Amino acid sequence: MKLKVKEVEFGYGSVPVLKDVCIELAASEMLGIVGPNGAGKSTLIRCIDRILAPQKGTILLDGQDIKAMHQMELAKRVGYIPQTTSQVFPATVFDTVLMGRRPHIGWRSSEKDTEIVLAMLKMLNIQEFAMRDINELSGGQQQKVFIARALTQEPEVLLLDEPTSNLDIKCQLEVMDIIKNIVVEKRISAIMAIHDLNLASRYADRIVMMNSGKIFSAGNPVSALTPDNIEHVYGVEVKVANHDGKPYIVPLKPVEQNGSGN
Amino acid sequence: MTNSNETITETKDAEIKAEYKKFVGRKIIFILICIIAIFILAGIAATLGSADISFLETYSTILHKFIPTYFSTSWLADVCVWNLRLPRILMAILAGVGLAIAGTVMQAILRNPLASPFTLGISAGAGFGAAVAILLGAGVLAGEYLIIGNAFLFSLIPTFIILGLTRYKRATPETMILAGIAILYIFSAATTLLMYFSEPEAVKEAYFWMVGSLGKASWDDLLPVSVVLACCLVPLMWKSWDLNVMGAGDETAKSLGVNVGRTRVLILMLASLMTAAIVCFTGTIGFIGLVAPHMCRMVIGGDNRFLIPASGLFGGALLLGADTIARTIIAPVILPVGVITAFMGGPLFLYLILRKKKEFW
Question: Given this model, what pLDDT does residue B132 score?
Fold first, then answer.
């Protein structure tokens, strides 16, 4: 196993957000975390990158506890693309991607770092924007820049928080194809929190469905994305069709909630 | 086919590299221009003043200090140029450099274009400390260091409040600025209250302090200011790339291995120290720390590795220019430089806001 999350619990103050969360991630596997707003998807991802410190439980990367690792060491091995980033001051795309080398170098970048940045720009097909200001780009182009930055870290595990939010459908597919290709070609493992169940079904090898801080169901898309599971977790009646061997979810109507929903 | 594709890639890579090199070259040229501008301005400023001393006499006086046998001087020229003008010119450069760099790094760590020593209340704190010393004669140190010691001590109060907020209240950049402005108002009100009940002569001196003036600069003041600036600059330059990374947001910075909390505290401490060291001797000169970084960003972009030295030098030139105008515009009356910087900077800053292409300018 590449990454193991064992019995992790986290809360903001006295409000528990994650309860007894266990996840395993194999090498070169793409894991999709789905669940309604407030289920704890983003919090879990932040815990894995040690941006938040869980109150209980351990997270092991190649059997090594990430709590014992230096922040720089973790940054060399885990890349994270937050849901929203805002660059207040001007920065060129090139300089933004170059930031991904921070865990590897101190102050001056070398020719090798430049080569890595150029290779990433090419891979994501954003060479033409290299010297443009990041704030002048569209949402989809920016997301590609942030993926390029995370890959410039040369991580073994890539964490993505809603990589397709705010993107049009063409961009969504482009971005997801890029991520899928990286996972296969570079043998990187990826965990992504994602709202769109159909994108999750199409691209993830395995799905973890979360509900109020707990894992409700886990497995391949067919076993996890069932009408019963979705109705229970989201409170929405759906029809699950089959498309190329993957479940395709058609939402029908919200279900009247009676009781706690748990 | 593959071959031609590779050639295309190579030329594209070479193109980007060339463009990047050009961009870096532009930044270095800007820095060089600032250095040259400072030397030219200083050279001109030394010859200007209310005393009637000619251009040749000025330089003869300066060179007399180094090679006394070849160059002559007169008593008047010696006092005016060596004791009054030169320390003032050098203090203007140092203060400009320090305030502009403090503003640059504060804006970077708080990710806020409105951050500066002035808007975080650090200058106001120092001003109040000075007012207490001048008007009440009370302070921690006695004698000639009374005013300076007090200014320094009180400038640390806003710093520690803002640091405390980041530490215990998880303050966002926005709340920090709001807290800074609240502190600024409290200190200004306290200073006004003090002045209201004081002797007219003391009030005039305290007022001078609040507006900011370089008139008190002497050779003895230059050493402590330059030592503090040099000591702060080294770690700031060393952390300049981390400042860039923090510009992309706290979460991104953490995921790139930067210890965000510790870096923010360190930078804010250094910036406050620099500000306090300057305000002790000059009073609260506003605007330089706010606008110099913005103007430089417009020309050379936001990379702090170049922006810190560039905006420092630009700030030095700007303050020296402003002070030269303050000394000469209605000579023999010398205006406080803070008035000139405000009159120069206010409209300029408004213009920057109005013609903004992007989010902030």
Answer: 84
Structure confidence by residue, pLDDT tens digits, A133-186: 998 888 889 999 999 999 999 999 999 999 998 889 998 999 999 999 999 998
CB contact under 8 A, B20 and A153: no
Kindly state the DSSP code that residue A261 receives in the 8-state scheme: -
Q: What is the pLDDT of residue B140?
A: 55
Nearest to A82, CA basis, from A6, A9, A15, A149: A149
Q: A85 and B20: CB-CB below 8 Å?
A: no
The whole-angstrom distance between B71's CA and the closest CA on chain A is 47
Strand partners, A254: A236
pLDDT band at residue A74 under the 50/70/90 scheme: very high
The H-assigned helical ranges of B48-145 are: 55-66, 75-77, 86-110, 122-131
Chain A residues near residue B259 by CB distance under 8 angstroms: 71
Task: Note the pLDDT tens digit of each residue in B53-79.
Answer: 777 777 777 787 787 777 777 777 788
**Could you give the CA distance from residue B55 to residue A234 in angstroms, rounded to a whole number?**
83
**pLDDT the model gives residue A262:** 44
Best-predicted range by mean pLDDT (A93-107, B19-33, B101-115, B132-146): B19-33
Of B19, B247, B251, the CB nearest to A91: B247
- The residue of chain B with its CA nearest to that of A120 is B13
Q: Does residue B215 contact residue B339 with C-beta atoms inside 8 Å?
A: no
B20–A91 C-beta distance less than 8 A = no
Q: Is A100 in Cβ contact with B241 (below 8 Å)?
A: no
Domains and CATH numbers, chain B: 25-354 (1.10.3470.10)
Sorted by where each starts, the structural domains of chain A and their CATH numbers stand as 3-219 (3.40.50.300)
For residues A124-138, average pLDDT: 89
Query: Is the CB of B251 less than 8 angstroms away from the CB of A92?
Result: no
Out of A75, A91, A131, the one facing B257 most closely (by C-beta) is A75
In this prediction the ipTM stands at 0.89
Q: Is some CB atom of chain B closer than 8 A to the CB atom of A91?
A: yes
- Token duo for residue A193: 């929190």
Select the residue of A49, A88, A94 nearest B255 (Cβ to Cβ).
Answer: A49
Q: Report CB contact under 8 Å: A135, B13.
A: no
Give the Cα separation of A63 and B197 in Å (integer).
Answer: 70
What does the CA dihedral A31, A36, A40, A42 come to, rounded to 10 degrees?
A: 60
